[in-house]
Each structure stands twice: as C-alpha cells, then as structure tokens.
Write a structure and sequence with these properties.
alpha/beta; two-stranded parallel ribbon; 8 helices
C-alpha cells in the first residue's frame, strides 16, 4: 500500500540523514509525520551497534640487534668485500690417498685424533712454504710476506663466523699441526681462547663441507690476501687403467686479492695444493 510522508517529515528525515524508504519499511504505517520521524531517529540512536571487525594480526617479525661480535664480523666482511678486488679459482682434488693416510696415521698414533681438516691444514702449510706470496697481508699499499705461517681456521659459532689463528705452523710437524687444529677449534667452541688467538692470521681455511656445499666464494679475512674454501666430499666415477672406478673428491676454492697477487701465481699455488693433497705421504709426518 502507498505510504504518505508529510512534507515536514521528509524535511526532518533529510536533515537527520534518514533513509526514507528504510523508514517506511520499518514503520509500516499509512502516514508518517514529523513526530514519527523523530521517534524513528531515537530507535536508530538506541539500536546496538555492530562490533567493528578485529584488526588482522600483524605477521610475526623477529628483530635481532647487530652488536658485539656480530657487529664486528659484519664490519670486517663489509670492509673486505668493498675494498678487495676478489677473484676465486676452483678445482677438485682426489681424496682417496688422503683418506688412506688418515686411516694409517690413526692406527700408528692411536692417542692422536687425525681429521681430514687437520690433514688439509698440513697440505696448505706445506704449499704456503713454496708459495710465500700467498702467505701475505696487504695494508696501506704494502704487501708483506710473512716467514711464519699463521693459519686461520674459520669456525661457525652461534654469533657468526669467527677465525681463531694457529701460529708457528712453518715450524710445526704434520702431527703438531693436526693437534693444533683440534685444540684450537675446541677452544673456540668452548670460548676458552684468549683474544690474541683471533688476530694476526696470514692465511685462512673455511670449510663448508658439512653443509653439503660443493663450491663457494669465501670472503678474504682482512688484511690477508687469500682464503681457501673447502667444499663437501663426494663420490664420482672415473676411468682408471681402462676400468670405471669410484673416487672420492673434494672442491677447493681459492679466493685472492687481485691487488696483491695475479691469477698465474694463485693458480700455481692451487695446483700444487691439489698435488700435496693427493700425495699426503710426502707431507712430512
């Protein structure tokens, strides 16, 4: 049926912002006056308001302030990456003879812990003796070749990658280097090394083999001019005396500062390191 709204009621409804058609449907009477409009407005005012939708939960974000040792690591890595023109050379080394040497030395010296990392450190030290340019630092436009080999062993700690240093490696025997590597890594993880144990390195080894990484480009530990990245040990098929055999190999990645050394001497060092790893009984134990 037709509903009549008086002109005065229409005016009041417009002033109050009331939807006339909704008011007609709500009141359901034949005639609507100003009095009816005011009464309807009161019912709207007292009607319960719908609850506002809850705001969507913000995604969880974990924030970690960069400070202390982590900040020092960040600054040193940034400095190295931004100032050193780095080049990385990569090749594979056969590990079969090294693993045989590890087994032999473990049986000969049962009181010593012989590890692949320790044997690699011995091979690196021997190779550095014949390539002194790689056992060097670069500071203030001066290249310093060091007589003492101070070998850094990168260790992954909760607060980041840190590099304890083993001094006197030029004079140590192979067994002494292996023992020093074990003791240094243990002391680093137990936080028992003095601050002086983390300074003065001349060459660093960084091993990501346990993470299954084949090759990577390690950042040079300033002010050193080179670092060796060691990848994971893997099995490959090879042809030997006309027969297909299984060989265990490892990736070697040498990053060097091109300001201090060129590709040819760096490549020669890596080639000789490969030969020393593949002929470990010549390392001098």
């Amino acid at each position: 049926a037709r509903i009549f709204v008086t002109p005065g009621a229409k005016k009041i409804a417009k002033e109050l912002g009331i939807d006339i058609e909704a008011m007609k449907a709500a009141l359901g009477q034949a005639k609507i006056s100003k009095k009816d409009v005011y009464a309807y407005a009161e019912t709207l005012k007292n009607a319960p308001k719908a609850a506002a939708p809850a705001p969507a939960a913000a995604p969880a974000v974990k924030e970690t302030p960069v400070k202390g040792r982590r900040r020092a690591i960040a600054q040193k890595m940034s400095e190295s990456a931004s100032t050193k023109p780095r080049v990385t050379l990569m090749l594979d080394a056969d590990l079969e003879e090294l693993l045989r040497a590890k087994k032999y030395l473990g049986e000969k010296y049962p009181d010593r812990r012989i590890t692949v990392t320790g044997l690699l450190a011995v091979a690196v030290c021997k190779t550095l003796k014949s390539h002194p340019i790689m056992n060097a630092t670069y500071e203030n436009d001066v290249i310093r070749e060091h007589a003492d080999i101070r070998l850094g062993i990168a260790a992954d700690m909760e607060e980041g990658l840190i590099v304890p240093v083993i001094g006197g490696c030029a004079e140590k025997t192979g067994l002494e280097i292996c023992q020093a590597v074990n003791e240094t890594v243990k002391g680093c993880r137990e936080n028992t090394l003095p601050p002086s144990a983390y300074a003065g390195g001349t060459f660093t080894i960084s091993n990501l083999g346990s993470a299954g990484i084949k090759y990577f480009t390690p950042i040079i530990n300033t002010p050193e001019i080179a670092i060796l990245g060691v990848g994971s040990m893997r099995k490959e098929l090879a042809l030997e005396n006309g027969q297909v055999v299984e060989r265990r190999k490892i990736g070697l990645c040498l990053s060097f500062d091109h300001r201090a050394v060129d590709g040819a001497p760096a490549g020669s060092f890596l080639k000789d390191l490969k030969e020393n790893i593949e002929n470990p009984f010549l390392l001098g134990f």
